[in-house]
Specification:
This protein is mainly α. It has helices at residues 6-18, 21-34, 39-56, 59-75, 87-102, 117-129, 142-145, 154-173. The chain contains eight helices and no strands. It is globular and about 55 Å long.
Length: 174
C-alpha cells in the first residue's frame, strides 16, 4: 500500500466526511508552507476554499478559486497523480461546479475523484474512528458553514501584514 502524508489523509477525511472545508484549508496550508509551496497542495487548498465559499453562497469568491484550481490542473496534467486523484475527472468536476454556480444551481457536497481503493479504504477507517461517515451528505450547521468567523486568526493576519510590509519595502528598494 502506498504511503500518503498524514496531512493529506486528514484533508481527505475532512473533505469527504466532516465536510469541514475550512479545516481542510487549515491542514493543507500548514503542510504547503512546510513543503516548498508545491502547486499540488495549493490546488487542494484552493479547492477546499472554493467549496467553502460556494456553500456560503459567496459565488464570486468560489468562482475565482475554482478558476485558479482549473489553471493549476491545466498547467500540469500529472500534478495529482502521486496523490491518486484522477485529475481529468477533477477538472471536469470543477468545470461543472462553475457551470452550476453560473446557472444558479443548488450547492451539493463535493467528492474528489480518488482512484486508489486502498487510500479510500484507509480514509473510510480514519473517518469512522472519528465518528464520521465517509461521503456524508453533511449537516448545514452555521458553525461549520461560517467557520472562519469563529476562529482566532490573529496569527495569520499578523503574518500577512508582515508579508505586505516586506513586499512594500522590497519594491521601494528597487
Amino acid at each position: 500500500m502506498k504511503n500518503y502524508p498524514e496531512p493529506y489523509l486528514d484533508y481527505l477525511i475532512h473533505f469527504h466526511a466532516s465536510r469541514d472545508y475550512f479545516e481542510c484549508h487549515e491542514i493543507m496550508e500548514e503542510y504547503w508552507l512546510e513543503n516548498n509551496r508545491q502547486k499540488k497542495w495549493l490546488a487542494l487548498i484552493q479547492l477546499a476554499v472554493a467549496v467553502y465559499h460556494e456553500r456560503q453562497k459567496n459565488y464570486s469568491g468560489s468562482l475565482r478559486l475554482y478558476r485558479k484550481v482549473l489553471s493549476h490542473l491545466r498547467t500540469n496534467k500529472s500534478m495529482l497523480d502521486d496523490l491518486s486523484i484522477h485529475q481529468a475527472d477533477l477538472e471536469q468536476l470543477v468545470k461543472s461546479r462553475i457551470k452550476n454556480i453560473l446557472n444558479d444551481g443548488d450547492y451539493q457536497p463535493m467528492n474528489i475523484p480518488i482512484f486508489d481503493e486502498d487510500l479510500i479504504h484507509q480514509c473510510v477507517q480514519l473517518a469512522e474512528e472519528k465518528g464520521w461517515k465517509w461521503l456524508s451528505s453533511e449537516e448545514k450547521e452555521q458553525e461549520l458553514i461560517f467557520r472562519h468567523k469563529l476562529r482566532d486568526r490573529s496569527d495569520v493576519i499578523l503574518a500577512r501584514q508582515h508579508s505586505l510590509i516586506k513586499k512594500k519595502k522590497e519594491r521601494e528598494e528597487q
